Amino acid sequence: MLASLTVREFRNLAALDLEVEAAGLAIVGDNGHGKTNLLEAIAYLRLLRSWRGARDVDVVRFGAAGFHVRATLHPPARAHSAAIGFERASRRKRALLDGVEQPRLSDALGALPSVCFSPADVALVADGPGERRRFLDVALALTSPSYLQALQTYRAALSRRNATLREVQRAGRAGADAAARVAVWEPALAEHGATIVGARRDWVAAHAEPFATLCAAIGESAPVSMRYVGPAEDSDASALADALRAQLEAQRAQELRRGITLVGPHRDDLQLLLGGRELRTFGSAGQQRSAAIALRMRESATVREQLGAAPLLLLDDPFAELDVRRAQAILDLLAAEGVGQVMLAVPRAEDIPPAFTRLSRRTMREGRLS
Amino acid sequence: MSAIDDLTTELARLPGIGRKTAQRLTYHLLKQPADQSRRLAQALVTLVDTVRTCTRCFNLTEAPLCSICSDGRRDGTLVCVVEDAADIAAIERAGEFRGRYHVLGGRLSPLDGVGPDDLTIGALLARIPEDEVTEVILATNPSLEGEATALYIQRQLAPLGVRVTRIARGLPVGGDLEYADGVTIAQALQARRDM
Ligand SMILES: [Zn+2]
């Protein structure tokens, strides 16, 4: 659990030092004063990047040389302390566990396990497949080292195959020569792509039913479901790899014309359905928000399974755009799961739900806590 | 003081040397006896003026043919393909291999603009009939790019009817051959498999 936090030059937070109780903390403050920035800083110690998709340079406080976030954990997770720093001039990002710089940044992924709920999560449901792929990749890469390794190698092979496709196009190569240059990246794409697709399918198989149950409990009367849309229905690794290899080969001619790789897990989707139709297109704003929260709750369950304890919940005014009925249902569901430590950010004290009124309160104003 | 700046800039270009280290080295070279620094400068000039690549295998050499290519006791029908000349030194340390080498001069690295034509693959294909090569051992690094390079060469060699083998994955994945110990390299060579 998060015991203390030090934040330096992170967005509008110049210098912030904070002790956090076991139950957590409620941060009250008007929008634009730094509540979300504080939660974003904490989430950096899990993802090592911005959960809002911002570039590291844009997270550095205006005029500062870099930012720094450090947490002490008690009881410890993977370490007693975790820190991340970014230097603007060198564009270098460093992660430290127990004060020791990690040789690879990714060694520090998940150092402070947390799951963030925010109104912006509606993008998970309403936006394109990329958002949902990212969701699956974060949930799986941070709980499975073999998934992380497969994902990194897959991306490395994909960028090399795409670069080769562009080069072949530019140089006007054709026929067997062009195919031979492109094909050498395909065994790695098939092998690691199969690991990725298999793990995603397994996740969907395990979480589809609880997800549907959650959506119903939040109050959606039409049945909400999820399914993985990708190449081949297999989830056996070698059958999947064979299928991917065959599809890459079948698509190669078209890919040579288009200059980009068209098949593989980087094109798949985690489809969310409302009574058989895409929630993304046919769901109401309320239904989409419910499904987004249900997805985050399954992410939380995934982390909990791996950790054996509840992750830190970062609640960024999550009920702001929900009706009272749905908000209450979600609070009940969270309580039933067993809430661990919570960092709750709300604009006004009246916005703190009864379940969290026992949390200590601090006020955020112009990047300072009082 | 542009002489100081010039040397610092040149040193900082070297791999693994930052601006600060380059500066420290520059001041160290000024502080030590002038003769010692002159010997270093002379060694550098001699190096770049005399060392070239072997006309057959692209190993580093001061003669037209490298010491391995000109050694009649080495088995010319067995060729071990490596990424860089430094890999030869590593394999030679293992003392296991009695054939000859072929240095590619890198590996397929499309993000850096390195394609098959930038490597010495054409010269390797020409060597097969010329030197009556019967087996080619692909000893590129067990990395993503090393594997892709091995696969590309294997497919180019396939029509020539020569046996093509790949060193075993005894090496740590992503680990450089250059840094592997002799026993590991010897095992990886012994356990090579047909591609
Ligand atoms: Zn030679």
What does this structure look like?
The complex is a heterodimer of chains A (370) and B (195). By secondary structure, chain A is α/β, with parallel strands linked by helices. Chain A folds into two domains: 1-113 and 312-370, Rossmann fold (3-Layer(aba) Sandwich); 121-310, Up-down Bundle (Glutathione S-transferase Yfyf (Class Pi), Chain A, domain 2), CATH 1.20.1050.90. Chain A has helices at 35-47, 56-59, 122-126, 129-141, 145-170, 175-183, 186-218, 237-258, 279-282, 285-307, 324-337, and strands spanning 2-10, 13-19, 24-28, 66-73, 81-87, 92-97, 100-101, 114-117, 224-229, 269-274, 277-278, 312-316, 342-346, 360-365, 368-369. In chain A, the strands form three sheets. In chain A, strands 2-1-4-5-6-7 form a six-stranded antiparallel beta sheet. In chain A, helix 5 (145-170) runs antiparallel to helix 6, helix 5 runs parallel beside helix 8 and helix 7 crosses helix 10 (285-307). The longest helix of chain A is centred in the middle third of the chain and has 33 residues, at 186-218. The mean pLDDT of chain A is 93. The model of chain B has no long low-confidence stretch (mean pLDDT 92). The longest helix of chain B is centred in the N-terminal third of the chain and has 17 residues, at 34-50. Chain B is an alpha/beta fold. Chain B is elongated. Chain B has two domains: 2-50, RecR Domain 1 (Helicase, Ruva Protein, domain 3), CATH 1.10.8; 60-194, Dna Topoisomerase Vi A Subunit, Chain: A, domain 2. In chain B, strand 5, helix 6 and strand 6 (163-166) form a beta-alpha-beta unit. Chain B has helices at 2-12, 19-31, 34-50, 85-94, 121-130, 144-157, 182-190; strands spanning 52-53, 60-61, 75-82, 99-103, 135-138, 163-166, 193-194. The interface between A and B is medium-sized, with 16 and 16 residues. Zinc ion is lined by residues 54, 56-57, 59, 65-66, 68-69 of chain B.
